[in-house]
UniProtKB/TrEMBL annotation:
Coiled-coil segments on the chain, per record: none
PANTHER family named among the record's database cross-references: MYO-INOSITOL-1 PHOSPHATE SYNTHASE
TM ranges: 12-34
Family the UniProt entry places it in: Belongs to the myo-inositol 1-phosphate synthase family.
Occurrences of domain Myo-inositol-1-phosphate synthase GAPDH-like (ranges): 249-368
Protein name per the record: Inositol-3-phosphate synthase
InterPro entries, per database record: Myo-inos-1-P_Synthase, Myo-inos-1-P_Synthase_GAPDH, NAD(P)-bd_dom_sf
Signal peptide residue numbers: none
Keyword tags: Membrane, Transmembrane, Transmembrane helix
Keyword Ribonucleoprotein: no
Domain of life: Bacteria
Amino acid sequence: MKQTNVKPADGRLGILVVGNGAVATTFMTGVLMARRGLTKPVGSMTQYDKIRIGKGDDKKYLSYSEVVPLAKLDDIVFGTWDVYPQNSYQAAMYAEVLKEKDINPVKDELEKIVPMKAAFDKNYAKRLDGDNVKQCATRWEMVEELRKDIRDFKEKNGCSRVVVLWAASTEIYVPIYEPVHYTLAALEQAMKDDDREHIAPSMCYAYAALTEGAPFIMGAPNTTVDIPAMWELAEKTKLPIAGKDFKTGQTLVKSGFAPIIGTRCLGLNGWFSTNILGNRDGLVLDEPANFRTKEVSKLSTLETILKPEAQPDLYGHGNDEDTQYYHKVRINYYPPRNDNKEGWDNIDIFGWMGYPMQIKINFLCRDSILAAPLCLDLCLLSDLAARAGRYGTQRFLSFFLKSPQHDYTRGEEPVNHLYQQYTMLKNAIREMGGYEADEEID
């Protein structure tokens, strides 16, 4: 490893997960099993991917941990918050993502992970009805209790560092409201005034994490750290933030396949995406107000890759306004499928002289199996970024996220093109490892 200014990954890394459901328990079980040598962390970039360092005769391909000092799986300690009181072993069994034989070897460790009471507001997730919740008079009180949870966890488990990861349900859609969300002072005042309309519980978790020295990662499409007030807090605390929404199934396909259409200069008339899933996420998203949050995140991917204004002949038609292609996203709650989500994409394209063609993609994916390695990578890389002195929005983590954070107040567009995101990821790791960033995004 080259000499870098990144602090070493000494001591234990606490990973505090908001939510103890299918994604969280699959993530935790997999890490615990992998470090006992009982499974392989397949799908994790930090554990498997290699980056080219140098060029020509000096070229070599190194794993991330050979380029930068990453925390080791053995040093991770898990904690969680959830509205249901069941420990992580009980929750993993209930989720029915993993087989019993893949959970039981680490039963003893999972049973010790007992969720702390959640900061919860039923108005933000009407389909959830747990009783393991904090009784807080105000949003500010929520923040104070969460801060104490983080301090107590860190002390009890002897952690030198903590990362907080949201792997809980999608909240109802919270439109960005300038008088509350644009400055830190206004956000804090709204929390103290108990403004429940503009302050989501997830914002309380993010605020608590950052004020307790922990990077925060938003794994759902919630309005949380993608507001100027949180950017201000991240600057003030000198901590990384990342979000939003894990890029697992259909959007991963979209961000990888749309560049094929764009690179080949084919035209697009429409892209229809629909999903069925039956886990707790599906139940929550069956509520229209919660689906709206997810819809905004899923719709944004395509429009930043195939831009009608850049190529009007290819993408500038198709709907009633005759301005661009038609793009529709649907999610349907279907309990028999549980965590085994199915995504269908119908893509209407056209080619030479306008002749139409179709592409059909049917992805029978396992939601939590795809999300778990993202959780690991986002936590390890956010911890790395913090030790490297990087703070604010970590755009290099866009590769893992469905609706990457960006500064919309300055007209910035998110990068959704998967291969451009991958270049950003590799260059950031090269730089933190003391090497030159040597790939460009055209």
